[in-house]
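Field guide to reading this record: the first block holds the primary sequence, the second block holds the structure written as discrete tokens, and the final block holds curator observations. Each block starts with its own label. This record concerns Dienelactone hydrolase, catalogued under organism Rhodohalobacter barkolensis.

BLOCK 1 — SEQUENCE
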Amino acid sequence: MKSLKYLFLFGSILMLAACGQPESQSQSEKMEMDDSPAVVGEEVSYSAGDLTMNGYIAYDDNLEGERPGILVVHEWWGHDEHARNSAEKLAELGYVALAVDMYGDGRMADHPEDAMQFSGEVMGNFENANERFTAAMETLRNHSMVNGEQIGAIGYCFGGSVILAMAHSGADLDGIVAFHAGLQLPIMPEEEIDTEILILNGADDPMVSEEDIENLTSAYDELGTSYEFVSYDGATHAYTNPAADSLGQEFDLPLAYNADVDEQSWERMKQFFDELF
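BLOCK 2 — STRUCTURE
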């Protein structure tokens, strides 16, 4: 009888161990899931003068407390999925990100001629451009999850030009990262710039000349601006946008996605904001 009793106890222990292991794994998996970002994306409208701007704000709902805010300024095509995806990726990193609308009413260009017109309307009237950008910045700054003392910006192509011009004009930005930005700007640096600047361009970008680079970096050097200019070999214009290949082919434009450089430049951006904030 004793042997049967011990046998029963031994079997019970084995059953408990077997049943307990999956429960432990489940708890571990649950903890991992709880620690992973829970990105929430929300449509947001704000005004610049009489114009309604349609943006998109993203944040990690699992985080508590205020955190830095980062503006995302779109390419010359307009407020698109590329900008929204970047906002969500920034939210995964712990920021609150606002993909802005610089054209108003969420306008999108279907053709390069339209994109040229829309972007020209913005950059050709810097007072209006500044009003639109400032409205977006204040919308982000006033968000309940944002530390209003920590605001940065990233921009692509046209958007990169926008944030560079804004930094040159004295916008209250801690740091900016410009991806494949045009460097012929409506506002060039003439006074001391408080904003930290990182420019990540493609070495094979035919839309940016060596003269453009020299003019800008020389001005920075003369003013003692804190900046870094990175030129990626093998990368051309719009290298961060997965849609660049099809757009380039459709409209015979020198656009091409470069997955490796896209990843490298994003990692460099992450390091930049980690050090800044």
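BLOCK 3 — OBSERVATIONS
Helices lie at 2-35, 81-92, 112-123, 126-141, 158-168, 210-223, 244-251, 259-276.
The first helix runs from residue 2 to 35.
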